[in-house]
Tellurite resistance protein TerB
Amino acid sequence: MENTAKTMNGLYESLGKLFYAVAISDGTVHNNEWEKVKEYVKEDWLWVDDFTDRYGTDAANQIEIVFDVLMDSSISSKECFQEFVDFYKEHPHAFSEKIKTLTKKTAKAIASSFSGNNKSELILLGKLNILLAQN
């Protein structure tokens, strides 16, 4: 199945939710975690594909936008992770091996960016690895 701009924008929005779920899993988004998200979007995610959002900017920017919006919300890590899971199960074709690898790499970097990994982050990373091994 071919990926559409709508699907890919949804993918990047879902990744923003996933990365927020990792960052907030210990109850607080630390500045180091937010900086790590911005770093990975700029250095890695903007180069994944040529999809753009409705404003003509790289769709990968949705990761950062969604993460930023969620920092002003009261949504839980569990809710955000579940929304990512739901998107993954509905659109597994959007997740190439390259995207899966980069997703795990980014999530791990966010989790370890503030005083190493804690138990809640390790559990979430484990669930993510199991999920991405499906299909």
Remarks:
- Residues 5-133 form one domain.
- The chain has one domain: 5-133.
